[in-house]
Amino acid sequence: MTSMNDLLEFHYIQQLKYRYLRALDTHQWDLLSTCFAKAAKVWYAGGAFSHDGRDNVVKFLRELMPDSFISSHIVMHPEIKLTSETTAEGIWRFQDIVHFLEPNPVFALWDIRGGEEMTGAGYYYDNYVKEPDGWKFSSMGYERIFEVIEPRAGRLGLHVTVDPQFGMDRRK
Amino acid sequence: MTSMNDLLEFHYIQQLKYRYLRALDTHQWDLLSTCFAKAAKVWYAGGAFSHDGRDNVVKFLRELMPDSFISSHIVMHPEIKLTSETTAEGIWRFQDIVHFLEPNPVFALWDIRGGEEMTGAGYYYDNYVKEPDGWKFSSMGYERIFEVIEPRAGRLGLHVTVDPQFGMDRRK
Amino acid sequence: MTSMNDLLEFHYIQQLKYRYLRALDTHQWDLLSTCFAKAAKVWYAGGAFSHDGRDNVVKFLRELMPDSFISSHIVMHPEIKLTSETTAEGIWRFQDIVHFLEPNPVFALWDIRGGEEMTGAGYYYDNYVKEPDGWKFSSMGYERIFEVIEPRAGRLGLHVTVDPQFGMDRRK
What ipTM does this complex have? Predict the structure, then answer.
């Protein structure tokens, strides 16, 4: 049974996920850091990229995602379960689109030379912990359903326009 | 007017939809079966695929979606209305991506030979019924805004990587 | 701190956003008009398309989106904040797909001749006002992360099928 109070906790946990993804796609690394517990672990891409500790996670993401890594990660379908007063777990669907504007050595597997588009879909498997200042990720990982990589550079008539601010509100 | 209690019911109905889509894209047919009332009806693709009764619906989906049917169905924008204490209706936006790895006879219209990608968008029109063990679909259908099918096999440099577990958590 | 009552207001504001997007993609201009306060302002595409007043906004969208403009706009990740009893602001992620079936003079920048697909991602920055009959947009704008335009007419084997009713429920 879900209570009204559970709905509030789900709300806070969802806000955490949204803030994390906004920090990720807008390259706001300080904001992103606040989303993780100090001892957080991540296992992205089914464990291909695993890191322990908030600082290592943020360092990895900064190196993976330079200015030439243009991304849109979207999540939906949250299935969240409170496992104690201060812990929870959640499954989310995601889809992602990445435009590689330049070579990317972190994606060594794929020989990214710039001009590639990557699209994919899968599931996030998260664990959350409630700290004095709110919910944080204690772990986060994902498994893909599929991943597609395709070189597009030089394709006739293709225009890829990128916002140098990654969509942040420029009125401010 | 929406009450706090309505928010709880909306939450349960949304969880049903998310569970259905997770069962669908991960090919968990037993889990999928639990999402439907026994007399449920579906009318997919504007009625092109219509089936009566939970067992017939699940049988149809199993045949449509063999291991070589790799899909990502996502939904958003739920507009749900309670129509009685035990019934409700809902409109959802959806988008879907399908990678056909092999010929698919169910999509007879399109002569699917393997290597095609299908993408689309539209609206689900659902009806729900509250049974003793929770909300179920009494009917589900969708109309498309558009549908795109394109053969991609042999396209230069294209890599489509598929998870044999369709994104399920392999740590378990 | 978020209260139970705040969750209700967030729900109403989300319903407004979903109704707006359904009206937009199904070309229901009268329904779309009811989503805006009379003095509403919009600044789409980082301000490239700015309009003042509900009637001007609707007039612009009608001209931008004739029957040959087939679109799927999806939003997620709502981060909504109540700023008074009758005002609120919100950030949403969005992705959009547009199929241009014919030349479109409003997109003068891109020389749209028909057959192009546009895809993009970004953030909506909304302001809301609570009127006697519910929440309305007092302003709405977006910044893109990226935008891709590609001519596809004549591509081998490509089928784009469009519903003349843009996905509306034809059973009614």
Answer: 0.96
